[in-house]
């Protein structure tokens, strides 16, 4: 009779079942023990292998996996990357140019390659910028251009003291003092990359010629004459200095304040104030009035295109019908001088920028004699043109000609008129052709 073994499920004789079962149990227990021993050995080996790949960090005291550990090339000291990154970020925040190894006994600086490996590209760029700023701050020989689009770095090699000429004056119009000359020689720079002129000590652009940095700061905080820019005395309540020219300009100038808070640079008693000439306001007005065809982009810093001696804010101004702005007295002087030579011409009645005839209520009285003379000379020229039967010549009738459909312009161009030196009456003198 055969029976099934409860261990291995084999069928064996009933008389041998007990012996077979005991043998199977012995084999199973032995296999189980061997399996457990093998698992323990495997775990031991894995643990030993893991311990072999771990290194202790001297900053945090923890055992760190080798892949999260960093060893410096220069000094061979190693720390976990997390601790090193925190250490380096603190040093960058403290604006330290040279970051030394964290080991107390080591004074070796961390190499740039190590910093690149430990920091993000943005953090490394911040480190480079911070280091450069600190080097420039501590160095007496390096100067950086204040123009943000340039940032060129130059070396200050010193300069030989040069005396100021008798005509050289500062930005305040005063002759240069010995102190100002010394400061100019030491601290005035011109960037060769972008041509920006600046002060290497306070980064003022342009350089404050005639002032030291402290004097220029005091000058900037003080009150100034609205016309010449000279510093006003503390006891002066007016915004105009005592110079006769400035007093005369103030008599003609508008006293109103514009909605933007700046002085009106127009003339007194105008019905409509001159637009603000400050650069920010000019830019804002241009954006708000894009639909308008006639709008001037001139600012108070632009020179008057008639006198070319002073900027627009230095004297009362008028905006002409064409939209261009000039000094009021410069326009009046130009009209009073009339034509420059012996021949009567009328360019003095036109805007020097666009050649449009002058037009402004305050100039109507000054313009009337010239406009009357222009009409009279034009009539004489047209009459002479008809007498010579030239009103339909090619210069007037031919398409594309300079004076096409403009016989008056052609007549004024062809004939020359001169005033009589005795009675000042005009008379025709010659034919241009």
Portion of residues in beta strands equals 5-15%
Q: Please tell me how large the radius of gyration is.
A: 46 Å
Termini separation: 152 Å
Structural class: alpha+beta
Largest sheet: 2 strands, antiparallel
Helix proportion of residues, in percent? Answer: 25-40%
Fold and architecture overview:
The chain has 433 residues and is an alpha+beta fold. The chain is built from twelve helices and 14 strands. It has helices at 17-52, 81-93, 112-118, 121-138, 178-187, 213-221, 244-252, 279-288, 328-337, 364-387, 394-397, 407-414, and strands at residues 2-4, 11-13, 54-56, 63-65, 69-71, 78-80, 142-144, 153-155, 188-190, 197-199, 317-319, 325-327, 415-419, 426-431. The strands form seven sheets. It has a two-stranded antiparallel sheet. A two-stranded antiparallel ribbon has the order 3-4. A two-stranded antiparallel ribbon has the order 5-6. A hairpin with a 6-residue loop joins strand 5 and strand 6 (78-80). Helix 10 (364-387) packs across helix 12.
């Amino acid at each position: 009779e055969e029976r099934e073994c409860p261990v291995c499920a084999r069928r064996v004789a009933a008389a041998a079942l007990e012996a077979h079962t005991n043998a199977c149990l012995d084999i199973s227990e032995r296999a189980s023990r061997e399996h457990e021993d093998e698992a323990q050995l495997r775990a031991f080996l894995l643990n030993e292998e893991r311990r072999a790949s771990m290194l202790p960090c001297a900053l945090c005291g923890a055992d760190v996996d080798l892949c999260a550990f960093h060893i410096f090339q220069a000094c061979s000291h190693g720390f976990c990357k997390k601790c090193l990154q925190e250490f380096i970020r603190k040093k960058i925040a403290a604006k330290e140019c040279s970051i030394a190894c964290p080991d107390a006994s080591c004074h070796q600086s961390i190499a740039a390659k190590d910093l690149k490996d430990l920091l993000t590209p943005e953090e490394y760029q911040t480190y480079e910028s911070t280091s450069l700023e600190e080097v420039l701050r501590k160095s007496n020989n390096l100067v950086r251009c204040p123009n943000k689009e340039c940032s060129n770095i130059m070396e200050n090699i010193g300069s030989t003291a040069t005396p100021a000429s008798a005509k050289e004056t500062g930005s305040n119009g005063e002759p240069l003092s010995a102190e100002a000359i010394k400061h100019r020689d030491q601290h005035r720079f011109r960037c060769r990359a972008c041509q920006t002129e600046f002060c290497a000590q306070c980064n003022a652009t342009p350089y404050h010629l005639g002032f030291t940095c402290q004097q220029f700061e005091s000058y900037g905080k003080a009150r100034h004459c609205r016309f010449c820019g000279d510093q006003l005395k503390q006891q002066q309540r007016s915004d105009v200095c005592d110079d006769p020219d400035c007093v005369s300009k103030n008599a003609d100038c508008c006293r109103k304040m514009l909605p933007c808070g700046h002085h009106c640079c127009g003339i007194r008693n105008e019905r409509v104030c001159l637009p603000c000439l400050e650069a920010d306001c000019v830019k804002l007005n241009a954006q708000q009035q894009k639909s308008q065809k006639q709008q001037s982009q001139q600012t108070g810093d632009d020179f008057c295109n008639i006198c070319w001696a002073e900027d627009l804010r230095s004297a009362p101004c008028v905006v002409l019908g064409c939209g261009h702005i000039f000094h009021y007295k410069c326009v009046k002087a130009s009209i009073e001088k009339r034509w420059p030579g012996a021949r009567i011409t009328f360019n003095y009645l036109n805007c020097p920028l666009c050649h449009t005839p002058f037009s402004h209520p305050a100039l109507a009285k000054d313009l009337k004699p010239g406009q009357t003379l222009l009409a009279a000379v034009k009539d004489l020229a047209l009459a002479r043109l008809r007498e010579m039967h030239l009103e339909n010549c090619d210069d007037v009738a031919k398409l594309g000609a300079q004076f096409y459909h403009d016989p008056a312009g052609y007549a004024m161009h062809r004939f020359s008129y001169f005033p009589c030196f005795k009675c000042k009456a005009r008379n025709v003198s010659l034919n241009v052709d």
